[in-house]
Design a protein that fits this description.
By secondary structure, the chain is α/β, with parallel strands linked by helices. The protein folds into two domains: 197 residues, 3-Layer(aba) Sandwich (Rossmann fold); 245 residues, NAD(P)-binding Rossmann-like Domain (Rossmann fold), CATH 3.40.50. β12, α16 and β13 form a beta-alpha-beta unit. The protein is globular and about 75 Å long. Bound molecules: nicotinamide-adenine-dinucleotide. Nicotinamide-adenine-dinucleotide (NAD) binds next to α5.
Length: 471
């Protein structure tokens, strides 16, 4: 029986390995992590991450051919294929601080693999890493082990949180990069055979190592760039009376452009887009390509600008002050169908409103109060503009309360803000919400989840990103 071990039981390691276990009953899969609470949660009825369909997949194979464990060394030693799916955040100190990927976790995983291995292994980069990382990993592995054959593959993950299981069941493509040597090609073939259990052959793409590593950064940069492009257009729409939804529809009908990923919003979030673009910027700078670096930097600049613009719009609409005014924050996760708040625009928007002394009542169906408090007070690395990124002080937290639902969050509020596009927000009883709010009652829709015309008929003053404004 082939044995797979995955180091890192996070948003990527957990779901990807659960799907491999489900689709390949003949393979034994162990997911290991240094975090005890995370592994306990994977072994319980309350999985550590919220992802539609995940519970079901885990229940079907946990204890059969899928295991979660803190015994990292034992499972790595026994495995034929070791995936490494540890976090690769942005470096916060030293050389490359604020841009370069922090490979500390990766390096310690690689050293441990070299230490405990007694047989040949395929080591797979699942984490998103800078191009040429495999070269460093090869050095660490070969210099620290005694003649063991390691083949390094790059197999970046393209799943999106919120649709991870669907994406893993039916991927647009699976990318495998390897060395173009007989051993490298053999390793690529072995991994290909794993995916071939359920992924059609034409969707499994093989490339050299560096192309695979760079493709992941490129894909995230292109996706984020699309969001920043439509968000930049949304600002122009507001200034001119055009409607960004109509513009996106018309633009997306061009088959060269396509309709996906053209929704204007308060900005992109999530743990990957900003981190991966900064990483790309750093790589460009290190390779003497400052103009290319500047090009990608602008994608993040527009994202920061969009968040700042949203806060400014709220404050200016509410007669230039939100001091002491209750504002209901509806949604805190960075997108619907996830409880993940990493880099969510809600952090910057809430911090901006707290600086202006607003009273916030926050509701999100999947994010805990503890998480929100942590997010608002953590020191967040400011890559360029300090204004919105200041952490809320512990005293500012006195301005924050938490609500059980959207109705409680909006009761007696002067305004409500939609920051996540949860489906449940589309079917709220807005007449009831309006009746219980202060007047004039403002709606600031950062995700274009509500129908502004219907809300205006009720009496709300509505600001929707990229849409014509109230007169
Ligand atoms: P995560 O923080 O949720 O999980 C990483 C896990 O690795 C943590 O549980 C941590 O405890 C564990 N870990 C760190 N060092 C370890 C070690 N030495 N031994 C054992 N466990 C260790 O991160 P994630 O969101 O799953 O992302 C992992 C990687 O995948 C990152 O490089 C990320 O950029 C990339 N990625 C993420 C997504 C996403 O949507 N989250 C999508 C594609 C790619």
């Amino acid at each position: 029986m082939v044995k797979i071990c995955c180091i890192g039981a996070g948003y990527v390691g957990g779901p990807t390995m659960a799907v491999i276990a489900l689709k390949c009953p003949s393979i034994e899969v162990a997911v290991v992590d240094i975090s005890q609470p995370r592994i306990s949660a994977w072994n319980s009825d309350h999985l550590p991450i919220y992802e539609p369909g995940l519970d079901d997949v885990v229940k079907q194979c946990r204890g059969k051919n899928l295991f979660f464990s803190n015994d990292v060394e034992k499972h790595v030693a026994e495995a034929d294929i070791v995936f490494v799916s540890v976090n690769t955040p942005t470096k916060s100190q030293g050389l490359g601080a604020g841009k370069a990927a922090d490979l500390t976790y990766w390096e310690s995983a690689a050293r441990m693999i070299a230490d405990v291995s007694k047989s040949a292994k395929i080591v797979v980069e699942k984490s998103t890493v800078p191009v040429k990382t495999a070269e460093a990993i090869e050095k660490i592995l070969t210099h620290n082990s005694k003649g063991i054959n390691f083949q390094i593959l790059s197999n970046p993950e393209f799943l999106a949180e919120g649709t991870a299981i669907q994406d893993l069941f039916n991927p647009d493509r699976v990318l495998i990069g390897g060395r173009e040597t007989p051993e490298g090609l053999k390793a690529v073939q072995t991994l290909k055979e794993v995916y071939a259990h359920w992924v059609p052959e034409e969707r499994i793409i093989c490339s050299n190592l560096w192309s695979a590593e760079l493709s992941k950064l490129a894909a995230n940069a292109f996706l984020a760039q699309r969001i920043s492009s439509v968000n930049a257009m949304s600002a122009l729409c507001e200034a001119t009376g055009a409607d960004v939804s109509q513009v996106s529809h018309a633009v997306g009908k061009d088959t060269r452009i396509g309709p996906k990923f053209l929704n204007a919003s308060v900005g992109f979030g999530g743990s990957c887009f900003q981190k991966d673009i900064l990483n790309l910027v750093y790589i460009c700078e290190c390779n003497g390509l400052p103009e290319v670096a500047n090009y990608w930097k602008h994608v993040i600049k527009i994202n920061d600008y969009q968040k700042a613009r949203f806060v400014n719009r709220i404050v200016s609409s509410m007669f230039n002050t939100v001091s002491g005014k209750k504002i209901g924050i509806l949604g805190f996760a960075f997108k619907k169908d996830t409880g993940d708040t990493r880099e969510t625009p809600a952090i910057d928007v809430c911090r901006g409103l707290l600086v202006d002394k607003a009273q916030l009542s926050i509701y999100d169906p999947q994010v805990s109060q503890d998480q929100i408090q942590k997010d608002l007070t953590m020191v967040k690395f400011d890559w360029e503009h300090p204004v919105l990124l200041k952490p809320a002080s512990p005293t500012a937290l006195k301005q924050v309360s938490f609500a059980w639902d959207a109705y409680e969050a909006s009761k007696d509020a002067h305004g409500i803000c939609f920051l996540t596009e949860w489906d449940e927000f589309k079917t709220l009883d807005f007449q009831k919400i309006y009746d219980n709010m202060q007047k004039p009652a403002f709606v600031f829709d950062g995700r274009n989840v509500v129908n502004p015309d219907k809300l205006r008929q009720i009496g709300f003053i509505v600001y929707s990103i990229g849409k014509p404004l109230d007169q």
